[in-house]
Structure formats: C-alpha cells, structure tokens
Amino acid sequence: MIEELLASPFYQRALAAAAFIGFTNGFFSGFVVLRRNALSVSALSHTMLPGIAVGILITGVLSQWNAFFGAMFAALLVGLGSVAVARGKRVAEGTSLAVLYTAAFAAGVAILPKLDTRSELEHWLFGDILAVGNTDLWIAFSIGSVILLATNLLMRPLLLTLFEPNVAAAQGVPVRAMQYLLFGMLVLALVSSLQAVGCVLSVGLLVTPAATISLLTDKTSALFWGGGLIGGVGSVAAVMMSGPLGLPPGPAIVILLGLLFILAYLFGPKYGLLSPKFFRKTRP
Amino acid sequence: MKEETGHHNCCAHHGHHHELVIAGLSVCYRDILALSGVSMATSCGNRVALIGPNGAGKSTLLKAIAGLVPKSSGEIRWRGTSVKKWSREFAYLPQREEVDWSFPITVRGLVEMGRYPQTGWWRKFSEADTRAVDAALDSLNLSDLQGRQIRELSGGQQQRAFLARALAQEAHVLLLDEPFTGLDRNAAMLLGELLAKLAKDGRLIIASHHDLVSAHSLFDEVLVLSTKQLAFGAVAETLTPQLISETFAI
Known about the structure:
The structure holds two protein chains of two kinds. Chain A is mainly α. Chain A has one domain (2-282): ABC transporter involved in vitamin B12 uptake, BtuC, CATH 1.10.3470.10. Chain A has 13 helices and no strands. Chain A has helices at residues 2-7, 9-35, 38-59, 64-87, 93-111, 121-126, 134-153, 155-163, 165-170, 175-214, 220-245, 249-267, 276-282. Chain A is globular, with a radius of gyration of 19 Å. By secondary structure, chain B is of the alpha/beta class. Chain B has one domain (11-248): P-loop containing nucleotide triphosphate hydrolases (Rossmann fold, 3-Layer(aba) Sandwich), CATH 3.40.50. Chain B is built from ten helices and ten strands. In chain B, the strands form two sheets. A six-stranded mixed sheet of chain B has the order 6-7-8-3-9-10, sandwiched between helices. Mean pLDDT of chain B is 87; it is low at 1-15. Chain A binds chain B through residues 33-34, 153-154, 156-157, 159-160, 162-164, 166-167, 169-172, 214, 217-220, 223, and chain B through 63, 66-68, 85-86, 92, 94, 99-100, 103-106, 109, 113, 116-117, 119, 121-122, 147-149.
C-alpha cells in the first residue's frame, strides 16, 4: 500500500512539503526558544487568521502572498496594539495581548466561512498537507531558502542581539533592524506552516523542535540545525504514519514532535528527569 | 597571564602608560540627570573602584565608558584619541542579574563571542582566533569547564567566563559592574587576586563596588560618586571618614 501511496504525486508533494516546512520551522524554532517568547508566537499565529480572511476579502483571491501580507498586517496590528494598550499601565502587556488576539481570532473564525473559497475553516485551523499544490511547494521552498540564507548570514549579529542587546548595540549591530528581521521571518515561517499544520497548531512546529534539542545539548548552533533535523524528519515520519493510524496529518506532526519532546525530557542523557547524571547533580 | 593573546602589548611590557581621560562627562536618561561632571585621569595598571550609594550613577558611568549609553556631554579619551562610541579595547562585564544565564551557550561559545569584533559578521574563525580563545580559557582556568552551559558555573566561575571573553577580545580596559556581589568569601578572594594580576599585566580595571572596607585592599584608586563626582584619588587618601559619612549620609 505504501508503494502505491509513494507513487502518487499528491503524496509525494505532501512529503516534500513536510520536509521543507518541517526543516525551516524547526530551524527557526531555535530563535523562538532563544527569545523566550513562545506564548506571544502562539498569540501571533491565532492573529493571522483574520488577517488572511480580510486579505482574501479585499483581493478576492487566495494566494500565499495575500495570506502573507494579511497575516503580517494583522500580526503587526495586534502586536503594536497590545503594546499601546499596555502603555496605559492599567492593563499588563500579556493581558492586553490575550484580549486582542482572542478577539482577532474570533473575528477570523466568523469571517472565513462567509468567504467564497473552496477550502473549509478546518483547513485553516489545522492544515491540510495532502492538498498541497506545486505552487505551494515552491513557495514553501522559497520561504525556507530565504529564512535559512538570512539567518545563516546574520547568525553572529542575531545571537549578539538576543544574548546582550545593549552590548550588541554598542558594537555597532543594528539591534532594532535585527529584531524586525526576526519578526518578519517569524511571520514568514508561520505563513509557510499554515499549509501543513494550520494556524492553531503552527506554534507546535515553531517551538517544539528546538525546545527538544535544548534538553539534549548546550551548543547554540545545534539548536538550529538539530531543530531543523527533528522538524523535517519528524514531519515526514508523521505524515507517513498518519495514514495507517487513521490520523489527520497536521495534528499527527504536532503530536509526534510533542512525544519526542517528552522523551527527551524524561530520558535525555544530561538533563533528562530519569538520567542518572541528573540525579547525581541535584541530589548529592 | 603571560602574552596569551600573542599581540597584546600593554604598558607593563614596554614601560609607557596608556591613559584614560574622562573630561566633564554627563549622562541624562530622558530628562533625568543620571551622572554629571565626572572628570578623572588614570592609566593602565590601575584598579579603580566606583563607590557611592544606590542610584549614584556607578553603573551608568561604566555603561557610558563602554558606549552602552550615550553621553550627554563630555569626552572620553583613550591613548590620546577621543572614543566616540565604542572601542574594541574596552570590555564591559554586566551585573549578574542582567545576564540571561539560561541562554543555551557554553563557556567556550561565550568566549568566542569576544572574537566577533575582530572577525566581523562573516569571516570564519582563523587559527589565531582559536588560539586567542584557548589562551583566554587557559589563563582563567576554564579549559576544563569550556563545554559547560554558563548557568552550570559557580558565581566566581561565571565572572571568570566573562573575563575570559574580555581577554579573547584583547581588551585593555575592563569595566565590571559589581563583580564581587553574590560571591562567597573564597571566590571573592580569588577574583581579587585575579584582578590584581590582570592590572599588573597592564590592564586598566574599573569596577563598581559597594564594600568600603574591602575597597582598600582590592583597588588602587577610587572615584566617589553621588550623581556628581565627589572625589577621585588613591584609595587611602580619598576614602576619609568625613567623605564617607557625607556621601552615604551616615
């Protein structure tokens, strides 16, 4: 049965998409883990839904670029909005972010079914990797290339910015520009993962891989490349297993990555809960 | 600390002094005057303590010298030239609570960051870079700990890791923000000896410090601050009981 599946172009495309998207998002998850802002990434991913809906509403067509600009606009609006509300000092920034993103998400859920598109609401919420077309594949590949190229070229200034922004600024690193760049690439990564896992689950792909690696090693570069490897291999494996197990592929990806995280948490050789080394260190 | 970086030629080795001159330095945060009228001159080989009550501007002065906060007025001259923004020969070592200790970086990775000003954003690490990192780790007794994540170090080792980064950077002026805070007595003693050795090798050490008693043994010169400069000079002559009671309002 597997041979039959592997021969079909839609299945090949799904596997290729899983590999590209999984690797790119896994690689970028290193930055999310270093910035310690996984929760605001979650808020951001929910916020993209109304942005995409409005993008389609205005232009009448659904393309990855409409989705990207819509998502970017909505993310900026809610992100800056929550900062502005928090500036009034009555409401904490986390609180205002939570209020605004849930409201935005609700608006997205309300608007999307009214649009004249083929796809179901569920497709946007949880992804539909088996429906990936050739164009989608090219876009996922391009986004991946841009992110990998930019982050690798700028790895040193990006790391300096994340570790010690004031020292980085003194050394001439354009800290503000680096932060905007990270934000832009984050939205790009989120948009590319929509197709695979949807906006609700996209955070899983953008946090879990590097979080798993961080339990296994202290090498900063391993966080990125290891995260990419886990993201890519994990996504492909999950898509292949989802059929026989009768699971939808998007959730299967996030479940598998979550299981790997739990395994690393329990059995990691250095920091694992059940590793003998850890016991020795905490209980002398 | 021998010639560990290969091309570190400071005054201890060639007999003339590199001078740091601060003239009329002031710093404002928005409308608030954080520091005003700081003027002093010292040279490498010295250890200078910054002393004053909380909020006196000690950290601000260190950050202004390091180029982390902009100067509102005044000038900093190092070896005869005015330092506009940042000098590779200055290294700033942050206060403990300002460091993100859980950042997944090893001791070696941290020390390698000290080479970034030399390598720039893209150039690969050369053999000389690797040697400088090895030498810095070695001279601070961190070679065995280089694979550790920075949180897994003791307080004294963490200070040494940041010092090693400064050495890898080939910095001449070390700016330390409360380096002795939170260290146990043993670690504090070790750090004191280490700073003495670094100064003897020709580096200039400037550190904020809160303990008036230990300042006598740990430092050569002292700058007393309370938003404005109250005194500057050799520790024994400057830290008089009268000045102390005025500064700290005891």
